[in-house]
Amino acid sequence: MSDEVASSMSEVSHSPRLDAKVPAGRLQEKWDAYKDAVSLVSPANKRSHNILVVGSGLAGASAAATLAGLGYNVKCFCIQDSARRAHSIAAQGGINAAKNYPNDGDTVWRLFYDTIKGGDYRSREANVYRLAQVSSNIIDQAVAQGVPFAREYGGVLANRSFGGAQVSRTFYARGQTGQQLLLGAYQALSHQIAAGRVTMLPRREMLDLVVAKDRARGIITRDLVTGELERHAGDAVLLCTGGYGNAYYLSTNAKNSNVTAAWRCYKRGAFFANPCYTQIHPTCIPVSGDYQSKLTLMSESLRNDGRVWVPKDPKDTRAPEAIPEDARDYYLERRYPSFGNLVPRDVASRAAKKECDAGRGVGETRLAVYLDFDAAIRRLGASSIQDRYGNLFEMYERITGDDPYRTPMRIYPAVHYTMGGLWVDYELQSTIPGLFVLGEANFSDHGANRLGASALMQGLADGYFVVPYTLGAYVAGIRQSEGISESHEAFAAAEEEAGARIDQMLNNKGDKSPTQFHRELGQLLWNHVGMARDRAGLEEAIPAIESLRDEFWERIHVPGSADRFNKNLEFAGRVADFIELGSLMAQDALRREESCGGHFREEYQTSEGEAVRNDEVFADVAAWEHTDRRPVLHLEKLSFENVHPSTRSYK
Amino acid sequence: MAKNMTINLRIWRQKSPESPGKLVDYTVSNASEHMSFLELLDVLNEQLIASEDDPVEFDSDCREGICGSCGLMVAGIAHGPQQRTAVCQLHMRSFKDGDTITVEPFRARAFPIVRDLVVDRSAFDRIITAHGYVSVKTGSAPDANAIPISKDAAEEAMDFAACIGCGACVAACPNGSASLFTAAKIAHLALLPQGQVEASRRVVAMVDQMEAEGFGDCSNYAECEAVCPKGISVSGIASMRRAYMKGAFSK
Ligand SMILES: Cc1cc2nc3c(=O)[nH]c(=O)nc-3n(C[C@H](O)[C@H](O)[C@H](O)COP(=O)(O)OP(=O)(O)OC[C@H]3O[C@@H](n4cnc5c(N)ncnc54)[C@H](O)[C@@H]3O)c2cc1C
Ligand code: SF4
Ligand code: FES
User: Fold this and answer.
1) Predicted ipTM?
2) Which atom of ligand 2 is nearest to B168's Cα?
3) pLDDT in tens, A343-364
4) Domains of chain B: residue spans and CATH
5) Which pTM does this prediction carry?
């Protein structure tokens, strides 16, 4: 297999199929130049265009509300019983914007620079710059909607600092920033529903994209209550369906987060970019048993006062309080004296894995390290620790039953975010004309690693401020639906395929549940395509995942029928797609022979264990095209005209 | 080691909104104190699938107490016995080995049952659609610091905005009232200058919609506040009533 990857690699330098359509001119002027030149759609014309928005998270809700406000006819779909429950609701920490309210020297340029550097120089300059440019408008919009951001006593907005930045540019609403931003967008969406310009279709799952005459024409959905398959035609489809972290089974993502919609688009011709870029968050509550259904994130801010350690002796099974100082290894402080416990996410995660792999892990499963507040409590007093982290300590105790004021927390890294996604150009359009991809579902702005508080910014930038312009450019250029309605044969064919797949799963009557398959896939990916990867492991994983796929279709057992509410049927379809994606993730990881951001290849590190990037060969976006045989690789070469790729060091 | 527990469950099973339902007994003999209550149901469902039985349907998504998808009556209490905790964050250490726990859906006239423990809470969305928003289009916002807002007002607004829309308040209320949910949104927006502009229209539209959906009146039982996983205060209900009287009168 790797030979085929290698051969498809040698063919391409920069694929002509991947025209990013970045406007000419200075970086700072590109977006304005684009907006000056873009064709406008007249209000009367907008009313005659149907736009399908799949997803109601930050990206989908903001896009649907904005497009409806502009006059388009919008249909919006989501899996949950209400648009308000999209996974964005769970984001805790905050949202970045280059407002420079604290007057600490922030600028659009600095936000751009931090984001592109944080992404380890694997993203497109023009997109990231635009993101930084529109970031301020997001905060204005949210405040106007009534989002109750934290305030100072003087009545102005408060800011805090977040990883990867030297300025305070993060806006927050307690530990519930995602919830409040999503409710703002959901309420804006509700306003447009009230005005009759959005039809909201909750409890719907997109099962396929309909492509005819080389353009996206609509989607096939399943009504998750009645089981009915439905056809929806539209002049454009906006995919806002979130990330694919649940491929690993255990992640911080919500249970219904999935790759199905994006994967179906991939199979219809949209290229999938950088699937191997996944982000592992270092401070999550560890797995407690094999019944575990998801992992809970503990805010990164805890590392400001917590000290990470393991016992020096793997056989030391005393309670943590009973282990004396000289028998503890504060390994982050030892290995990274200047950053200590505050090294970036990927470094902290790998270091924890290394200790556990060496047998020094703690707790029942031995897959955890201590995060100890004892020194901070003695230095600052329990009450100031409570002020800072009270709600987090409570949450930890609720889940584990342990009190972190008395005994150290146990933490372990967990899959958190996926930087990869469907390839899009500057206009957020995929390789299928008429299919736009927004939010975590696209690969766009975070390169190989996302900085904290930047995903919320990107989802809302895409939906509120970017796609309303770029969609107009597309819509202005199409002739009315070209007679392709829901009775077109392409719809019939896609619906039939979706139905056949469901029947196949239900009629198989095997002996393994969807969850069993999902757990096995998760294990494979976590072990071989997780925090650290190497050639041998990846070469082992690819055939293993492919045989899991075959086994799935032989042994899957889905209870119940298709014509009713049936969660296991939903899960089964998503697991089938995750398995196929898993194989592509491994192939992409194998091809990328360097370490960058969330992608760490054991073979490419310094003697001190630091990542070694290879800008000569791999300063690119790897975009995969589905074919009936092997996926074909296309490359978008990245050029850095405004920043100079440098190497990170946290020593 | 984690304690192994045997848990007996009596779970409401109902095939469709129209069909009659009943409580059915199950046993999970390999529960752990570290499991969440929903993970216990996951384990039960795997057991049922293996024995060719029909798994129990229930809603959940984030499993960290923020999306509001989950919602069950556990031992007769909305979200179960642990206060200020959504059922997805309820853990088995709140129970004892050998316990028998009854599990039922959130029941209310305005929440028809879909299947088993899944209910239709779309009435909540329609209350928000009635006017649970600020009428502001994208792009028309002034600078975020143009209007100062006192820290206290922002904090209090946040207390109300924290509602997760789970519906426990309705399920716990003897009248099946949605007053706590509706008042929370009204209070959140009324406490902020951006929301005050439309405050009077908002309260009338939302309260009227609440009634049209078949939710009951509020008789001050305060059962809602007791089960609310986010600790939303009933104080919002009194203000909502006053504002409604004023708004409806001047209409
Ligand atoms: C615990 C946690 C904390 C986080 N904290 C932060 C933070 O502090 N700051 C930050 O910037 N980022 C944070 N993130 C990341 C951020 O929350 C997400 O990247 C972002 O919210 C994704 O938004 P989205 O709109 O792209 O997708 P989502 O919010 O995931 O929405 C996806 C939508 O698509 C729908 N959907 C999916 N598949 C289908 C389908 N097949 N058919 C129909 N509908 C479908 C879903 O129903 C949903 O409505 C955090 C993430 C997690 C997990
Ligand atoms: S007020 Fe409380 S109980 Fe009612 S929906 Fe909101 S969070 Fe749930
Ligand atoms: S599953 Fe999200 S609140 Fe319980």
Assistant:
1) 0.98
2) 3
3) 878 889 999 999 999 999 999 8
4) 4-104 (3.10.20.30), 121-248 (1.10.1060.10)
5) 0.97
